[in-house]
Every structure is written in C-alpha cells, then in structure tokens.
Write a structure and sequence with these properties.
7-stranded mixed sheet, alpha+beta, 5-stranded mixed sheet, Aldehyde Oxidoreductase, domain 4, 24% helix, 26 strands
Length: 702
C-alpha cells in the first residue's frame, strides 16, 4: 500500500464549509427549498404499553389548512415490517410512551401542531415495566454486543485469584439514561416522484445517506436506486443520526398520502427524547484484585443494561476492560432487561464511555487501597501485548500520555490525603483517568476521481459531515494523493447518488473514506497516467490493509481534571481539564482539536449534569427538554485543553491516522469524579455527581 506523503494533511486548514455555515447559506435538511411544501406534526402515544382502541380525527381534519390526518387505520402499508421500530403506523400496538400513533399534515407547522392537539385517542392499557435493576430474575445474555463483540469473556480463574489477592476492590457504579442532543433536531423532507427513476427523494439529517436508502427502500417495496437521500450538512449527531429513524419512515408515509406535495418533518426537542435513541442506563459491578504492589491479578466487570422490548440493542459496556490493563485473570459479562422503553442505540463512544468510566473510578479506588499514586498504578499494569487477543500493539502510548499529561497539568501539586487541600472555602482535588477507543475501518465505501481539466479535480463519495470537518479533511487527503493544492479539488459528499460510503460512526469515517479516496487516486494514475484528458475518471473501493488482523489497533489517552467543591454548599466547579491523546497522525489539527474538546465537554456534561429521569409509573422521560435535562455550559469549566502526541500509525491506513471523534469523551467523567474524591474524600459512584451526593458524604466526614 502506498504511503501518503503529507503536504496538506497535518496542516490546520480552515473549514471549507465555515463561511457557508456562519453566513447561514449552508442548507440543512429542513431548509431545503421546495415548492409548496406541507408540514407534519406527529401524534405520540401517551401510554407505555397497550393498544389504540379508537381515534377521533374529525375536528383535526376539518381545520383549515389540514391536508390529511394519518393513523394506523389509513396510513400506507409498508412492504416490510420486520424492524418493529420502523414499522410506523402499521398497527395499533403501543410498545413505549412517545411512539408514533399518527400524524397531521398541514400547510404550516403551526396548523399541523394545532390540529394534532384536537385528535382524541383512546387506549387499552396493559401493565408495563420500565425499571432497570441488577437483581431482576429476567435478565438475559444477548447473542452479541454492539457492534458484534462476544457477550461474555472469561480468562483464567477470577474467583481463585480474587481470594488470594492482597488487595481487593468490589464496587458498583451506575449511569443513568442519557440522550444525544445535537443542535439540529432530527429532520426529514420527503418527496414522492412516481414518474421519475428516483421514486422517493429524501432530504435527511443523517450520518449515513446510503444507510437510510438501504434501509428504507425495502420498506416501501423499492430498489435502492429508486431512493435518493441528500444530506450535505448535518447539525450534529453523536450517533443518534447514525441509523434510519422512525421519523424518516413517517415523513415518507405522509408524502405518499399527499401525492405531488413534498412534506417536511422536524422533531421537537421533546419528541427527540423518545424517538431518536438514548444511552442505556447501566449497573456495573467491578471486582479488582492486586498484589501488595498494585499489580492486577484479577478483573471482573459485570454490566447490566436495558433494551427495548421491541428491538434489542446491547451496548458493549465491558469490552474495554478486556484489553486496557494487564491481568492474568479476567471476566466480563453483559446482561439485558427487556423493558417497555424507547429503543436505545448509539451515543458517542457507546460501551467504552460508560464502561471505562466505571473501570477508571474503580482503579482510583484500588490506588487508594494500595497507597499508590493513580498514575503509577496504571503504569504498573501496562500490558506488553493485547491481553484479549495476544496481538502486538500498534502504537500503544498510554504511558506516554499519562506522563505528558502529568507534566502539563501540574500533577505534583496533588499531595496529602483526600480532602486535605483547601483554598479559602473550597476543597481542591486533581483526578486522572485513562481513555481508549478501538480503531475501526469499515469496508464498503467507493470513491470516484475525475480530472476536470485546467489542473482541477473532482472527488465524489457519499460521506457525511456532521460538523466533524469532513468537507475539509477529505479535501486535504485527496489533494495530497493527487499531489495538488486543496483549492484545486472539488469534493462532493452527502448524497446517496454519489458512490457509496459507510456511516460516519465508530470514529471510522475518515479512516474508511480517506483510504478509499487514496485508492481511487491510485487507480486513476494506473488507468490514465499523469497527463490525463479532461473527463477521465476512475472509481475504486476501500482497500484492505496488508497488515489487517496482525496488530491490535486502539487509540489511547489520559484525562485530567481539577475540581473545586464548596465545603459548605457542595457546589462543584471544574476550573481545568486536560486531555492528552495518542491517535496516529492528525489530519487537521484545527478540526481535531474541536473533536477532542467536544468529546471532553460531553464527558464533563455526563459527570455533572446528564440524567434522564424515567417515571416508572408512566414510562415517561419527565425531563425531556433543555430546561430540565441539563448539559454543560461555559460556566461549568474555565479551561479545557486537548493535545496529542506527534506520531503516525502505518499499520492503520495509508494516512497513518486513527479515529478521534469519540475518544475525547472516554475517561473524562471518571477524571472529574476521581478529582472530586481527591478534593473531598467522598466517593460518589452514581452519575451524575451532584451537590446532594457530596453534601451527604461531607456531613458524614465532619
């Protein structure tokens, strides 16, 4: 495989889409200009389980401006209802509160919403169950956990090793329901074109235009090429837009019910809490055993999660524990409770984020029990090779990240017992945690390279940019492969009419697409040489790396946080956070820094605020808006810094780069909670850490 010679790659090139976004000319899904559109307002179930017995739509249908009211009685039939989440309006069954049970289509969004308030729906309620507990007798082991890992792993004799360990930790950590909240709500515009080769045109806010096309085509009895999905700009996703959602189907159904008219559907913030996925709550038991010097002898990590009764999603919560530290005896397991709740799915760094949070807090507890500095404990348990697979590492530099972070953060200031450092009325502490995230490169993408003449090139690939910088970074990679300047490359992405591209997820987007673009350039050179005629083109798919399967490829990092706690009120402040990362070559330092900082801020939000409260009596997420579901704001942290090691990983891909979109959140919540313990001596094991939890502990210490 040819090694990419970086010229544009590695430079902090400004976002090519930046001017369009700051001037408001970048069109997102809902903003696509279409002639005479109609607007959809969904009707949602107000019970958690049961069935619709009657629907009165007469008053709504009579409202001026209403085009139609759809329910399961009159909605167009789908050709495939195998995916229960996407079988929208195909029956009167209700599987969770907030599920679509109808829709109003009208001339304006306001009319549609008003008319929707006039629809009367009657239900036959059934007993529901929405409560996750680790002691349930109906927990089960899924066949696999996302995206295909073994559910359980067992190496050595964990129980025997724990019994003989000089030091042991046996603790349980919990995380609540958490929700992706991208700035742009989930939106879909649908147009049926019965006389066109493209029968169904969708403008969708999605991380995978080709994924939406591939999934929706059979639902409507169409071939994939009869569906086109356009998505040039996406206002954030964090995984929530990584797969087709029910609103995509509902928009298409509504458009089919009003022939010749485009329909627009944008979910409200409140609707997103039940319809666009969430991170499952977890109950995690960690057992750690070590010798007197802090070297691990055994690790056990048990994760209990919930899933929806109508569609299974098993988050890979404990998989990071299988490889991050050396221990001869290790056991991990995942168990699910199938409940009457909305369908959980991807949320930034699924699995690694909540799992490493619990592990890294438990490691902090082990460091205290062993009387060791938390960084030294981690260094002593650095594995020479991947403990799970036995493969050699490709660029594991966790120790370097920890050492560099300690130097930059002033770790030497961390002296004395927890709770002993006081400045004025504040208790001050420092915390650390490790980060890790697997390297993924997903096959299946294709890119087309065309010489346009006069030294200009165009590159086509159906990739997505959800604010991550794809417009810019793929242009840089293409320019280096073509040995030209970035301004001589025209990139086209965000459209299923372009060559197929894998999902922008799993921190795999740029690695997968960039390798594909370079392969297409190589194919072009082989076919057309270095003096091509205008119009010459070549197309190629994702190449297989010759070292694939030889090495264990993961990114690593070290997260640091300073926490200050008011000794009287328990108020928590985080003046400083630092992340030091090892992720191979950084394609664009400017956009990469944004990705790292975004992940760290999301981790801070997870540590201090995010908590979806589901009322077990109703199955309702009661804090389903920004008034009550709090996320981090500027006031929550003063200084967030992200740096990275100068390196490349030739075993990963032709760019030498690994993914960066998700590792920034991994470990960040643990660093904050570990710093809070260092500040106060109070160990909080249930996210988020709030004043009441700290005050209870502080009162006990007084």
């Amino acid at each position: 495989m040819t090694t990419l010679r970086p010229r544009a790659v590695g430079t902090p090139m400004a976002r090519l889409d930046g001017p369009a976004k700051v001037t408001g000319t970048a069109r997102y899904a809902f903003e696509q200009p279409l002639e005479n559109p109609l607007y959809v307002h969904p009707l949602q179930a107000s019970i958690a389980r049961g069935r619709v017995t009657a629907v009165d739509t007469e008053r709504a249908a009579d409202c001026p401006g209403v085009a139609c009211v759809l329910t399961h009685h009159d909605a167009p039939r789908l050709a495939d209802t195998g995916d229960a989440e996407l079988a929208v309006l195909q029956s009167g069954r209700v599987a969770f509160r907030g599920q679509f049970v109808g829709a109003v289509v009208a001339k304006t969004p306001e009319t549609a919403r008003y008319a929707a308030s006039m629809v009367r729906i009657s239900y036959e309620r059934e007993e529901h169950d929405t409560e996750l507990r680790a002691d349930r007798d109906d927990l089960y082991a899924p066949d696999a956990v996302n995206p295909g890992f073994a559910t359980d792993s067992d190496q050595g004799d964990v129980d025997g090793a724990m019994a003989e360990s000089a030091v042991t930790v046996d603790v349980t950590y919990t995380t609540p329901m958490e929700f992706n909240n991208p700035m742009e709500p989930h939106s879909t515009v649908a147009v049926w074109q019965p006389q066109s080769e493209v029968r169904l045109l969708l403008y969708a806010s999605t991380q995978s235009a080709h994924g939406v096309r591939r999934t929706l085509a059979p639902l409507f009895g169409l071939e994939p090429e009869q569906v086109r999905v356009v998505s040039p700009h996406v206002g954030g996703g964090f995984g929530a837009k990584g797969m087709p959602r029910a609103q995509d189907v509902l928009a298409a159904l509504c458009a089919k019910a009003v022939p010749g008219r485009p329909v627009k559907l944008a979910l409200t913030r409140q609707q997103m809490f039940s319809l666009t996925g969430h991170r499952t709550p977890t109950v995690q038991r960690l057992r750690l055993g070590s010798d007197a010097d802090g070297r691990l002898t055994a690790i056990e990590h048990e994760a209990v999660e919930h899933t929806s009764r109508i569609k299974e999603f098993a988050e890979q919560t404990a998989t990071g524990t299988r490889m991050i530290y050396a221990a001869p005896n290790r056991r991990t397991s995942h168990r699910l409770a199938a409940l009457d709740v909305p369908v959980p799915s991807w949320m930034r760094a699924p699995g690694e984020c909540p799992g490493i949070f619990a592990l890294e807090c438990a490691m902090d507890e082990l460091a205290v029990a062993c009387g060791l500095d938390p960084i030294e404990l981690r260094v002593r348990n650095e594995p020479a090779e991947d403990p799970e697979t036995g493969r050699p590492w490709s660029g594991r530099k966790l120790v370097e990240c920890l050492r560099e972070g300690a130097r930059r953060f002033g770790w030497e200031q961390r002296t004395g017992a927890p709770g002993s450092r006081r400045e004025g009325g504040e208790l001050v502490g420092l915390g650390v945690a490790s980060s890790t995230y697997p390297y993924y490169a997903i096959p299946g993408s294709e890119a087309l390279v065309r010489y346009d003449g006069d030294g200009r090139w165009s590159v086509r690939i159906g990739a997505a940019d959800l604010g991550t910088g794809t417009w810019t970074t793929l242009t840089q990679i293409a320019a280096d492969a073509l040995e030209c300047a970035p301004e001589e490359v025209t990139l086209l992405i965000g459209d299923s009419a372009l060559p197929p591209a894998t999902v922008a997820g799993g921190s795999a987007g740029l690695a997968s697409w960039g390798s594909t673009v370079v392969a297409a350039v190589e194919a072009f050179r082989e076919e057309h040489g270095r003096e091509p005629e205008p119009g010459a083109r070549s197309r190629s798919g994702t190449p297989k790396h010759p070292e694939a399967g030889t090495y264990s490829l993961h990114s690593f990092g070290a997260q640091f946080a300073e926490v200050r706690v008011d000794a009287d009120t328990g108020e928590i402040r985080v003046p400083r956070m630092l992340g030091v990362f090892s992720a191979g070559r950084i394609v664009n330092p400017r956009t990469a820094r944004s990705q790292f900082l975004g992940g760290m801020t999301m981790g801070l939000s997870m540590a201090l605020h995010e908590h979806g409260v589901l009322d077990p009596r109703t199955g309702h997420v009661v804090n389903h808006d920004f008034a009550d579901y709090h996320i981090a704001s500027h006031a929550d942290v003063c200084d967030v810094e992200a740096v990275w090691l100068d390196e490349e990983d030739p075993n990963a891909n032709v760019m030498g780069a690994r993914g960066i979109g998700e590792i920034g959140i991994v470990g960040a919540p643990a660093a904050v909670l570990n710093a809070a313990f260092d500040a106060t001596g109070v160990r909080v094991r249930d996210l988020p850490i709030t004043q009441d939890k700290l005050l209870a502990g502080l009162d006990a210490l007084r």
